[in-house]
Design brief:
29% of the residues are buried. α1 (2-18) runs antiparallel to α2. Strands 1-4-5-9-8-7-6 form a seven-stranded mixed sheet, with helices on both faces. A two-stranded antiparallel sheet has the order 2-3. Helix content is 41%, strand content 18%. The chain has eleven helices and nine strands. The protein is elongated. By secondary structure, it is α+β, with helices and mostly antiparallel strands. The two termini are 71 Å apart. It binds 3,4-dihydroxyphenylalanine. 3,4-dihydroxyphenylalanine is lined by residues 170, 172, 212, 250, 253, 256, 284-286, 307-309.
């Protein structure tokens, strides 16, 4: 046993001299301290030693193990230091200003469509306004000529906070504040996220985006409204899109319309996205009700205006051929990152 220990010390010392890099140190560790290393083998021999020698040999093996461990640690530290110095002095330098190789991100399709529509309206003299997602009953309903208990509220059930505020059900909720902020004449669009208590399916979401627009001036008429809508849609789709105007009821406009566009997913033949009708309600609109102008501090005798509530999420579905509205909030990068990269 003594001989063996001396032999191991000798061979370790020799091998340690030859080790010049950290890979060699690791090899050394495995060869002497590893499960099948020299010292472990020695432990096995201990089993067959005479009982009176076991304690003594055991202690010696432990000392040997500690000695080898200590020497290995010193050697590793020494070599690491040398390697670091070599790296510092070598020509290899890191440029911390280099761009990382992380994949570039992409814009969400709603962001893309929103920016596109914003650019179109900005070019036509509209300002772009931001507005809260949490609003009060007055702005979401009352200021829009929807008094308490009006049946129009049934369509817009939403999420209420304990303090009586609510998550806005439509971007129209910003109309009053914007009228009060700027007065007339006024051209503004205001995109925003809206919330409703909806049963979710391929064409309904509880969280979706709209873009509201209002134009108020002297002698604004339905022709102005139709002109702006057509211009915007032909810019977005880069082609003539079929539209139809139907009468529609909204308490904050008079007269009110539903502007539909032919379904761009199925081409008008009918599919789940358009509830098999071939048409998609895209942009309800109308002439702003005098009560709404008055609530916004604008004299309806002097000014008239139009308003529209463009379904941005719908528009994105049409433009990009997205069949299921749930894709947008899915967080599924495979679907969402294919529209345009940064
Ligand atoms: N705010 C309405 C909704 O989400 C849509 C709407 C209809 C907006 C007519 C308008 C409008 O500006 O004139 O159901």
């Amino acid at each position: 046993m003594e001989k063996k220990i001396a032999g191991i010390i000798e061979s370790f010392t020799e091998a340690a001299k030859a080790a010049t890099d950290s890979a060699a140190v690791e090899k050394l560790r495995v060869a002497f301290l590893g499960k099948k290393g020299e010292i472990s083998e020695l432990m096995k021999d201990l089993k067959s030693a005479a009982p009176e020698q076991k304690k003594e040999f055991g202690q010696k093996i432990n000392l040997l193990k500690k000695d080898v461990e200590g020497k290995l640690a010193d050697l590793a530290a020494e070599i690491e230091k040398k390697e670091l110095e070599a790296l510092i002095n070598s020509a290899e330098r890191y440029d911390v200003t280099m761009p990382s190789s992380v994949d570039t991100g992409s814009y969400h399709p709603i962001t893309l469509i929103q920016r596109e529509v914003e650019d179109i309206f900005a070019a036509m003299g509209f300002t772009i306004e931001d507005y809260d997602e949490i609003v009060d009953d007055y702005h979401c309903f009352e200021a829009l000529n929807i008094p308490k208990h009006h049946p129009a509220r049934d369509m817009q059930d939403t999420y209420y906070l304990d303090n009586g505020q609510l998550l806005k059900t439509h971007t129209s909720a910003a109309q009053n504040a914007i009228m009060r902020k700027y007065g007339a004449p006024l051209r503004a669009i205001f995109p925003g996220r809206c919330f409703r208590n909806e049963a979710i399916d391929a064409c309904h979401e509880n969280t979706f985006f709209q873009m509201e627009g209002i134009m108020i001036d002297k002698d604004i008429s339905i022709s102005n409204l139709i002109y702006f809508m057509k211009t915007m849609l032909s810019e977005v789709f880069q082609r003539d899109v079929q539209v139809r105007l139907r009468p529609g009821f909204f308490p904050f406009v008079e007269p009110g319309f539903e502007l539909d566009i032919s379904c761009q997913v199925c081409g008008g033949t009918g599919c789940p996205s358009c509830k098999n009708s071939g048409w998609l309600e895209l942009c309800p609109c109308g002439m702003i009700h005098p009560n709404v102008l008055t609530a916004g501090g604008i004299d309806p005798e002097e000014y008239t205006g139009f308003a529209f509530g463009l379904g941005l999420t719908r528009l994105a579905m049409m433009k990009y051929g997205v069949k299921d509205i749930r894709t947008f909030n899915s967080g599924n990068l495979k679907s969402l990152s294919q529209f345009e990269s940064l």
